[in-house]
Amino acid sequence: MTTEQNVLFTIFGGTGDLAKRKLYPSLYRLYKKGLLKEQFAVIGTARREWTDDYYREIVKETIKDLTISEEHAAEFASHFYYQSHNVNDSEHYVNLKELAEKLDVRYHINGNRLFYLAMSPNFFGTITQQLNEQGLVSDNGFNRLIIEKPFGHDYESASILNEQIREVFDESQIFRIDHYLGKEMVQNISTVRFANNMIESMWNNRYIDNIQITLSESLGVEERGGYYDKSGALRDMVQNHILQIVSLLAMEPPTKLKDKDIRNEKIKALRAVRLYKPEEVKDNFVRAQYGADSSKGTQLNHYQNEMNVADDSQTETFVAGKILIDTFRWKGVPFYIRTGKRLAEKGTQINVVFKNVPLNLFSEDVDEDLPPNVLSIYIQPTEGFSLQLNTKKAGIGLETDTLNLKHKHSAETVANSPEAYEKLIFDCLNGDATNFTHWDEVASSWKFVDVIRQTWDQDHSELPSYQSGSMGPAESDNLLAKDGFKWHWKPVNPDEEN
Ligand code: BG6
Fold first, then answer.
1. Residue nearest to atom 14 of ligand 1 (CA)
2. If we measure between CA atoms, which residue out of 90, 182, 68 comes closest to residue 136?
3. Is the C-beta atom of 104 inside 6 A of ligand 1?
4. 10-53 tens-digit pLDDT
5. 277, 451 in Cβ contact below 8 A?
6. Quick check: bond before 381 cis, omega within 30?
7. Which one, of 186, 173, 95, 172, lies nearest residue 128 by Cα?
């Protein structure tokens, strides 16, 4: 493992929630492992007037559960500097530049700069433009830009945003975060596929019946109603995380495991996703909102009664859909996806459902289906795999039984494996863009999602609601039932299921 050790981070949104919850702890973990040594500095910048000392105290507070000792925490925090900043004010960039140059010399950074935009995308264009105009983009080291989602709210707005950023940074310098790509088991998809001939040789429409992807959340929108009501599950989860998972499952084997090769294959897969015509949307995508619930003793609001949500809101908190990929490999294999808030439990799973044997020799009726073979990839909270097989029931006769071969990463492995953000920051330091989304992926994803969103926006019929703690509305089950399938993952008893 190598890292560019010398780097100046400039974190816009340095006082924000993301910086405190994810970025500072991730930087500390890298520091603790020696993957970030002494030649680094961080400028945190935001509107608030903080001093360096106060900022360092905050940084120390965010890592207090991880620190080796107080001295070590203080040593780490001494690399942090604060500069109050108004992103619209050119003067402020001059101050930032002065500080950057000073720190560059102090820490022997050699001009390597990483700009992290951990704030509203409304400011991305202004910030990148100012970074360029005021000379913060260095000309003797690397310049990299990390940006957070949402990357636009449709294809058009994403294109405008992209053009603004591309005026300053080229594609190889832009690292668009999708934190699902930092998850251990999402990264494992390529290994499972390309390191196992048994799996990869069956990874096509001759052997696979359908693939199911579930991103289930048990919480409601909590305090994020303002953002969520303008977004909804389709934009919040499908456009990014789910389509990224689809691309990893559907892509062709890359010739090498280099970022360029992998991203090329993902781009091809996403371009092959069939775009629905507006009149096809209703048959292939369903949406719903969570209802009120008091069955567990506490009163949970209907989505429309959540804080900062319009009381006639038509924003979906659940979406299920069928994705078709027009390639030789996937023709005829539906990828069913679903995600929602306030569902039965928090969990992410992929279930690859294989076709049945041609004839059931174990039944009077040779056409009767045996339970299918299912390869499940557990992404979170459990990390692991299972393979559902049919075997002989022990004893006299030839009755069949269904068996689940399982592997779960141990609690220790899960606890010790790096956090998504830690891995992503580390990759970015190494200039490795494998686990970041390329613009062409973003563009294809929006084009797919836009048709659905626009069709829904014109449909004023009442949204169905679903019961909190369920796995969504009946419409989601019907989506599969009409193709003769059913959702494999039914978290009735989560302990048993996982
Ligand atoms: C974010 C969404 O991208 O992902 C949230 O904006 C969602 O609404 C979150 O809760 C889920 O991420 P994770 O890692 O908790 O599954």
1. 180
2. 90
3. no
4. 999 999 999 999 999 999 999 999 999 889 999 999 999 999 99
5. yes
6. yes
7. 173
Do 339 and 497 meet the contact criterion of CB atoms below 8 Å apart?
no
Burial of 378 (0-12, 13-18, 19+ CB in 10 A): buried
Is 236 touching ligand 1 by the criterion CB < 6 Å?
yes
Centre of ligand 1 from the C-alpha of residue 232, in Å: 12
Q: Are 208 and 352 spatial neighbours (Cβ–Cβ below 8 Å)? A: yes
Structure tokens at 204: 């096509």
Sheet with 465-466, edge to edge strand ranges: 400-408, 384-392, 374-380, 347-354, 208-216, 335-340, 318-323, 285-290, 465-466
Q: Is 241 a catalytic residue?
A: yes
Residues 238-268: tens digit of each pLDDT = 999 999 999 999 999 999 999 999 999 999 9
Among 217, 378, 382, name the best residue to mutate to test ligand 1's pocket (greatest count of ligand atoms within 8 A of Cβ).
217
User: What separation in Å is there between the alpha carbon of 179 and the centre of ligand 1?
Assistant: 8
Angle at 103 between CA 102 and CA 104, to 5 degrees: 90
Structure-block tokens of residue 91 = 């003067």
